[in-house]
Amino acid sequence: xxxxxxxxxxxxxxxxxxxxxxxxxxxxxxxxxxxxxxxxxxxxxxxxxxxxxxxxxxxxxxxxxxxxxxxxxxxxxxxxxxxxxxxxxxxxxxxxxxxxxxxxxxxxxxxxxxxxxxxxxxxxxxxxxxxxxxxxxxxxxxxxxxxxxxxxxxxxxxxxxxxxxxxxxxxxxxxxxxxxxxxxxxxxxxxxxxxxxxxxxxxxxxxxxxxxxxxxxxxxxxxxxxxxxxxxxxxxxxxxxxxxxxxxxxxxxxxxxxxxxxxxxxxxxxxxxxxxx
Length: 277
Known about the structure:
This protein is an alpha+beta fold.
């Protein structure tokens, strides 16, 4: 899109088409990345995690449709078939900020806590998180006995990793494990049992293993964080409404926007707020 030279009030839309070719192995590897990122899934009900060239039927996932929708909006594109796919969207997607140079997910303490609050939900019983636009959290097991000892509010590493892969923009298991590792690092969850076989095979997974054997417990700090996030959002909304009614604004809108754009965590929350409104 660009201004029309002959009509200052109009715009000119130009479309360019780029064609390229690839061999079968490259195409198969690319499709496998779509499967790993949870953009497509087997349409015949098979829990296939390996892309099959023949005999398989695939369809876009809710996450894949939302990524496609985001791409179209970012590039000013409109696809007729996209509106027909909206009925397949099962819930919102948490877009993670990425480093512009390395393309790695930006995971600091603040971002980790935001993702964690979405993961756990209001009380860790599978309800919606403290934000109305958040996806339903995982369902924690109230009581679990391990080696004769009872633990409360637990889940497996597999459940956490699967939720992250389905409900955030991470593109593979490695990125999901990296985020979950920060949950342990910041003492939001605590390890109950460790999958030693998996840890010995993958040395980078000492703190978190994405398997059904590894069990994690919601820590007291994690519980406090979720409860604080829920109550602080409600109180901050009330304060914002009151200050707006009085017209008392301490910072200019431009300064606030600059502050948001410079902070990856604030950008994440701001993007969610834009989608909601």
